[in-house]
Amino acid sequence: MSRIANRSHAIPRKDPGDQLSPAMDRSEESMPRLLWSKVIRPGAKATTSDKMSSPRIIDLGQNLQWQQAVAAVIVLGFGALIIDYVRILYLRLKMPPGPLPLPIVGNVLQFPREKPWYKFEEWSKKYNDPVITVWIGRNPIVVLNDAWAASDLMDKRANIYSSRPVFQVPGRLMGGAEWDQPLIPYNDKWRRHRKLMVHL
Amino acid sequence: MGAQAVRNHRDIQSHESAILLSQLMQQPEDFVMSVERYSCSVVSIIGWGRRIRRKDDPIVERALNIMHVTAQIFVPGDYWMETIPLLQKLPGWLYALPTALKKGRQGMMTYWYALSKESAENGDRESFSKALFEDKAEGLLPLEIGSLTSNLIGGGVDTTTSTMLSFILACIAFPEALKKAQEELDRVVGKNRLPDWSDENSLLYCRAMIKEVLRWRSVAILGGLPHAPIKDDIYRGYLIPEGTSIMVYTLSWRI
């Protein structure tokens, strides 16, 4: 990537051997100017704040470009949201049962912030399964509500289930995943910390 | 701490529990803080070679503070920042909590690091801090040392305190069990000395009672910190994707 980028900057456009520069010139500058200034808003006029903008933006009309950018962001964001929600629903089909998650928030509006485990147990009874899935935003957690499931996964499959998830607040935000042993995933640093603690 | 290594600290526990008993007799109404001092002191001797005499020692205060924050922070869905991680990136003037939490946590670690360093340099007692600074701490960041030592508090203080308080609660809620335990103690130990570790194997009823308290009021309701699988796994036909938080609800009606 960086090599190509360097070339297009360093080599003058008239260089016949370089296919990249003319192509970029067409797609990035000529075409949008033609399209937006003549077709969408033919009579775009210069405004008082032009001194602060580049000449290209004068052509397009400042307000229009701003609105289009916002519209594009909204459309793209909405599209990403739908794709992501489809991913969540698809994953949900294959995972243990649980309440239907909403986009963005998952199930967090469906259980109380204080002592949520009572609600988890209620769901476990409702879905008649000791293993349930609850979505915290876009991420699932699996709650084991019986001793057999706990023993099957945490004990018998301990070789798989002994790492840590991403802890959004204490691990990622506060940085604990880098230096706090209980939050470090299974890696060399964790092994070193574990060794220090175990012989204590 | 390994199961074997724990045995090395039995003397410390015995001494501290004698102090606890005398405090309970002198000031029975203040039993919560007496228990808190006991568990802080055991940990503090192991970690920093420093006995805690008073219930209002700054370490006790900070230990309570740590557990208050920790217990809250790991409740799933409690922070909107956890549900929507993008909120962590909001500027400070709009959402001050992320920066405050981060600074608070790392500031706390700086305190524990300083305490560890001081006790490694000045303390004459053997301690975890001393061992860390003598040969094992090479290349560790101050944050790592601070968290390694203060995790003794995270692992040893609130767990011990709440189990002992649950035990007291159980004795009040089920006086017939307390009576049986008392009879066993009188029979095995007698009235002229305190029970010690050599009595452990003879005190069947007391041991069963302790085990039952651990089950009845588990200290880590969601099984401690969640685990996560290192690869996709199938269990009972269900997919459990790599990195999924796995919690165990230890008070469930099925446990």
List the SSEs and their pairings.
The complex is a heterodimer of chains A (200) and B (255).
Chain A: H1 2-10, H2 20-40, H3 55-60, H4 62-94, H5 117-126, E1 131-136, E2 139-144, H6 147-156, H7 168-173, H8 176-179, H9 188-198
Antiparallel strand pairs in A: 1-2
Chain B: H1 3-7, H2 10-26, H3 31-48, H4 58-73, H5 80-83, H6 97-122, H7 128-136, H8 142-173, H9 175-188, H10 204-216, E1 233-235, E2 238-240, E3 245-248
Antiparallel strand pairs in B: 1-2
Helix pairs in contact in B: 2-3, 3-8, 4-8, 6-7, 6-8, 8-9, 8-10, 9-10
Structure summary:
The complex is a heterodimer of chains A (200) and B (255). With 200 residues, chain A is mostly helical. Chain A has helices at 2-10, 20-40, 55-60, 62-94, 117-126, 147-156, 168-173, 176-179, 188-198; strands at 131-136, 139-144.
Number of domains of chain B: 3
Distance between the termini of chain A: 50 Å
| Count of individual helical segments of chain A | 9
Briefly note the CATH topology name of the largest domain in chain B.
Answer: Cytochrome p450
Q: Could you state the order of secondary-structure elements of chain B as H and E?
A: HHHHHHHHHHEEE
Radius of gyration of chain B over alpha carbons?
21 Å
Low-pLDDT stretches of chain B are none
User: How does the overall form of chain A come out from the CA principal axes?
Assistant: extended
CATH fourth-tier homologous superfamily of the largest domain in chain B? Cytochrome P450
Major pleated sheet of chain A: 2 strands, antiparallel
| Estimated share of beta-strand residues of chain A | 5-15%
Q: What strand line-up does the widest sheet of chain B have?
A: 1-2
User: Structural class of chain B, please?
Assistant: mainly alpha
Tell me the Rg of chain A in angstroms: 27 Å
Instruction: Report, as a whole number of angstroms, the end-to-end distance of chain B.
Output: 26 Å
Which strand order spans the largest sheet of chain A, edge to edge or round the barrel? Answer: 1-2
Q: Could you name the CATH class of the largest domain in chain B?
A: Mainly Alpha
Biggest interface goes to:
A-B, 66 and 64 residues
The shape of chain B, in one word, is globular
Classify the beta-strand content of chain B into a percent band: under 5%
